[in-house]
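Lab notebook, bench 4. Still working through the backlog of constructs that have no structural model yet. Next entry is a single chain of 144 residues. Request: give me the structure tokens for it.
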Amino acid sequence: MGTSFNIKAYPDQKEIIVTVNNGQVQFYLKSADKAKIFLTAGEAGKFSSANRTFTKSINSNLNYASWETGIITFDKTKLSDALEVIQKQYNVNISFENNALGNCRITATFDNQSLDSILKMLEISFDIRVVNDGTITLIGNGCL
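Model written out:
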């Protein structure tokens, strides 16, 4: 039933998320015909394997298709949340020396930029230092 949609499913996570770009998608378990939801453009559905339930919402994830488009967008996003997206996009681990940095807010769009250029922008924007000695660490005081 769907024409364009994205599925986010990772073996280490207990949820599957389907986001519909356009058209319709019926999201269900093959083993349980009664457990299903219908999604239309702009909606997201989540299946939780922990309690085997479906939920439906309006898609608010700006980066749900970043793996395909290479475009990452943040709008007043906590830096800790932004780094989760960047880590998945570039398959790296990034940590904070000072966890207060994670509360800083970022508004930016990165259009197919390299990880190095994103890290350089973070250094300049937040007056921090990026150390990459096999693992990437952001060093700085944090934000007010």
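Notes after review: Helices lie at 66-69, 79-90, 115-126. The longest strand covers residues 15-29. Flag for follow-up if needed.
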